[in-house]
Design goal:
Length: about 230
């Protein structure tokens, strides 16, 4: 069984000075060793379970994924992620959207579209950006990310939840994170039972309705395994 870390224990201190963005309620905590982000789960979901299992799968497959653990705070269930941003002064972290907007200033952060030239958020656009930065190793890790998302059914790989480290002007992939909308996170107990009994429903969850934000632009392909093909 996995440990549930109690953030009400005296070793943990709530950091009230850091504001967080995103749809979910989140708090930063620190002890004498590390800093963690506690994310409250949304009602009627198992987002914390998805985060933890996605991390464990990544570990098994040797894919760099930010560490997640189960946690509780004031009797609220949730998950914690450990601050993976390296603290060395010569290392910086950038979300992929930074590179997109550097290259295409008219790219709209909120809509992930570019009305001027059609350079919307897509497999091709991100491939172009990575090729311009560092070549083969970035492309290899990019494909690994796409395969990993297909495996876990991650539906929310937007331009602000993956990125790159920069060290001495060389870029490389940072750990992947934010996998809450995956692995059947919103299936009810009834739907989970149906999943194991109904082959047609199982196929719809795993294939037909498993979609990515990183579409193949020219063909408007959004299903994970169609992108993999």
């Amino acid at each position: 069984m996995f440990e549930i870390i109690n953030l009400n224990d005296k070793e943990w201190n709530l950091n009230k000075e850091i504001n967080t963005s995103g749809r979910n309620k989140k708090y930063w905590f620190r002890n004498n060793k590390e800093e963690v982000l506690f994310k409250f789960i949304k009602p009627n979901t198992r987002e914390h379970v998805s985060e933890k299992i996605a991390y464990e799968i990544g570990e098994l497959l040797n894919i760099s994924v930010a560490r997640y653990d189960f946690a509780s705070y004031n009797n609220n269930e949730g998950s914690i992620s450990y601050n993976f941003k390296e603290k060395e002064s010569n290392i910086e972290y950038f979300e992929i959207v930074k590179f997109i907007m550097d290259e295409y200033p008219n790219y709209d952060f909120n809509t992930m579209k570019n009305e001027n030239n059609g350079k919307d958020y897509s497999f091709e656009l991100c491939l172009e950006i990575l090729e311009n930065l560092n070549g083969e190793k970035l492309i290899e890790d990019y494909i690994r990310m796409i395969l990993f998302d297909a495996l876990i059914g991650n539906s929310d790989r937007h331009h602000s939840n993956w990125g790159l480290y920069n060290k001495r002007d060389k870029y490389y992939f940072a750990p992947l994170y934010d996998h809450s909308p995956s692995l059947g996170f919103n299936l009810t107990d009834k739907k989970i039972k149906q999943f194991y009994k109904d082959k047609r429903y199982q196929n719809s969850v795993l294939y037909s309705n498993s979609k990515s934000l990183l579409k193949i632009k020219d063909k408007n392909i959004t299903k994970h395994f169609d992108i993999v093909k």
